[in-house]
# Entry
Amino acid sequence: MADLSLKANHSLRYYALGEQAITVVFADHIDPDISHKIRQAEIVLSNHPFSGMLTTVAAYTTLSIYYDPFILKSRQTIDAKDIQEWIFDYFISLMDRVNENTQAAANILSIPVCYGGEYGPDLDIVAAHTGLNSEEVIAQHTSQTYLVYMMGFMPGFPYLGGLRPSLATPRKTTPRNLVTQGSVGIAGEQTGVYPLDSPGGWQLIGRTPLRLFDPKSEKPILLQSGQQVRFERLEHSLFDTYQNDHYGNKTS
Amino acid sequence: MEIKLHKPGPFSTIQDLGRFDFLSSGVPQSGAMDSLSARLANAALANKAEAAVIEFTYAQAEIEIRSDMLLAYSGKGAVFLDEEQTILPANRPLAVQKGTRLKLIPDGMGCRTYLAAPGGWDIPLIMGSRSTYLPAEIGGVNGRLLQTDDILRAAKWEDKQQSLFDYLQHSKRTHPQWAIKPMWQATSGTQVIRFLRGPEAGWFSEESLLQLISSTFEVDRNSNRMGYVLQGNSFQKIKDQELLSTAVLPGTIQVPGNGQPILLMADCQTTGGYPRIAQVAAVDLPRCGQLKPGDRICFQEISLREAENLYLEQERHYQQMRRSINLKYEI
# Structure
């Protein structure tokens, strides 16, 4: 029954996530340094994959490594007790051995946002809930630098840390059937951007003309974990102009 | 070499074995729900395993063959009939003539059928895969369901495929004598699905875990390519702890706050925050891909080592089968 083999090494441990993935656990709490470490480890590992490695998934405190045990076993002598231990050992020795400059994008990415009005229909709700006026909400939202802790939930969606607690507002009791792509919202103590049209319950305070998910471009996903971002106010009249300048004169 | 869809069927998409390059950016892996049947359809044509196939859900599709070509299909729950109502056998190459119309008709257990063409269907790669992921409108034919009048082309007619076609044509046969033996049989009644304990299994009481293996569950109507809601016992966690969002994958069984377990499938999110009570064994996931609302399953626990050995055995068998089919194409 006890297949959750946990092993301590370098303060890291791991567990099997089924027979085709292991999850390396870096910490048990959210921490910007941990996010950074996980991102670095992910880059190094993807530059030095083992036979049969399929992909990796980085999260708040974990890096999961997906693999095909058949390919791994047919191309590699497994000298460890089992496949999971072999992968973990490979990962640890790689981290010890490789000292690559994997600095995540050091620059802070600026995300232009048209706040309020048709772009941010819930700005007044957030203002009413927080006891601020809408100008103050915008000022506070644009005053912070946010960190992308991880990606998930939908393609290109960043889990951002750094929202001022004074802006925290609960989700809508009834989610919207359609939230337009680019919408910037607040849900509890989180803020985020919808990369796709989708249903959603976040309080929408604005919208960015920037595409977080652009499947046909060379870089289909704009953000990655470890990236720092700021929101910058954009005049409503410039939304279309910005989009045309960046993506050509076509609707999408 | 092309076909035209006269009736697309209720839910048909292009799939391959999945999109793995952007999981860490939140892009689901997608791919065939019954990946084993998708691989068998391709194997029958000596295609690469990752060639694009059509995934038909349920039946009621109708296609017109627009030029002489080879096709192969695999899966459960439906068969192709020609205009004379003759069943075209699954799991082997089929030589079909220009002008033929084929109908996909339900025949029992299962609900997904995979249709392969020489070299795969000619579909552009998007982010490393041809799989359709509808919520983001990517992959397949413009990121959408297949629809009436869609025309699909085979990517590449290789010499060996041409020779097999010519041979069949010459001997006035629609298919060779050999066929791939399906790697599992569809059975009626409750399906037994094997699983491993999930990382948060310990968050649930022993009674809960006992219920997981001793009771049956029904696939709810509220089920799709992202996952199946399982009706039956509900589970309450005994540990007062919240999970920080972390990786989930097809086959993960997670338990949200209402206690109703969800079996994640091909289009599932890449990360989740609900406790993961179990992980379906990789060898049984393709069978899950054939389940439909109302089907019943019961779970059987196996160890990590058993699951791994079952998978290794399946893959050895699959590789052997591919090698022997490739030999048949070289004669």
Remarks:
- The mean pLDDT of chain A is 90.
